[in-house]
Amino acid sequence: MQTLESAEVAVLERPDGLGELPDFTSEAYKDAYSRINAIVIEGEKEAYDNYMSIGTLIPDKADELEKLGRMELRHMKGFTACGKNLGVKPDMPFAKEFFSSLHGNFQAAFAQGNLTTCFLIQAILIEAFAISAYNVYIRVADPFARKITEGVVKDEYLHLNYGQQWLKANLETCKEELIKANKVNLPLIRSMLDQVAEDAKALDMDKEELMEEFMIAYQDSLTEIGLDNREIARMALAAVV
Ligand code: PL3
Ligand code: FE2
Ligand code: FE2
């Protein structure tokens, strides 16, 4: 596949009119992209596995969950193409390590049949993290990746919504577990964001913007699930204390 070379690339404007897009051919950009691209590919692959796992715990919803899972595989392929298009090799061992704590917590919850924690980790925390990252990335991505990411982020809202609906329908019995699982796992998302911030910056993605987008998706989803403002504030505080 043909890759981009500096000489061929004209300076492009951001779609939001806030200046120029980064130089997608620079070594600094490609180096950071090798880790970010791997994180996204690994995240989509694990999302597929997680929805398939959740499906085994709710047999009458297994078909729906498999549909969500298959969307994640499409996302994975899309982001793989984005890396190829820039001539970048994704650093997959880095990405596996990046997800290992959260992955371990999902696996432990799944082994105990703890659907509340599984849905919180995959459908709320990971999807809100993905939504925040993709929304910010769309503003600074190369045109090829922007198109792909715009399609993906629409699906991620469906996934967030799916988790919300399940937690909402079961809130009476799962609220305590939800709050407990959030206390353990939201700090992991926070530290993942801290770890990725420098590489994200090299792609012109601002950390505060990422946090802002995350908080919007996260708090909206807790509201939708049926928690009140005080409960949401308490839960969100787990990210800072
Ligand atoms: C589930 O649908 C998706 C799981 C992926 C989570 C990825 C989080 C990404 C954080 C990295 C920030 C940069 C994003 C750039 C996008 C190519
Ligand atoms: Fe996805
Ligand atoms: Fe998703």
Low-pLDDT runs of 5+ residues are none
Biggest sheet record: none
In total, the number of strands is 0
| Strand-residue proportion | under 5%
What brief labels describe this structure?
241 residues; mainly alpha; single chain; 0% strand; binds hexadecan-1-ol; binds fe (ii) ion
How would you describe the overall organization of this protein?
This protein has 241 residues and is mainly α. Helices cover 77% and strands 0% of the residues. The protein has eight helices and no strands. α2 runs antiparallel to α5 (143-169). The longest helix is centred in the last third of the chain and has 32 residues, at 171-202. It is globular. The mean pLDDT is 95. The structure holds hexadecan-1-ol and fe (ii) ion (FE2) (2 copies). Hexadecan-1-ol binds at residues 36, 39-40, 43-44, 47, 72, 75, 126-127, 129-130, 133-134, 137, 156, 159, 196, 200.
Describe the structure concisely.
The chain contains eight helices and no strands.
Mind sketching the topology for me?
Layout: H1 27-57, H2 62-85, H3 92-111, H4 115-138, H5 143-169, H6 171-202, H7 207-225, H8 229-237
Helix pairs in contact: 1-2, 1-3, 1-4, 1-6, 2-5, 3-4, 3-6, 4-5, 4-6, 4-7, 5-6, 5-7, 6-7
The structure holds hexadecan-1-ol (PL3) and fe (ii) ion (2 copies).
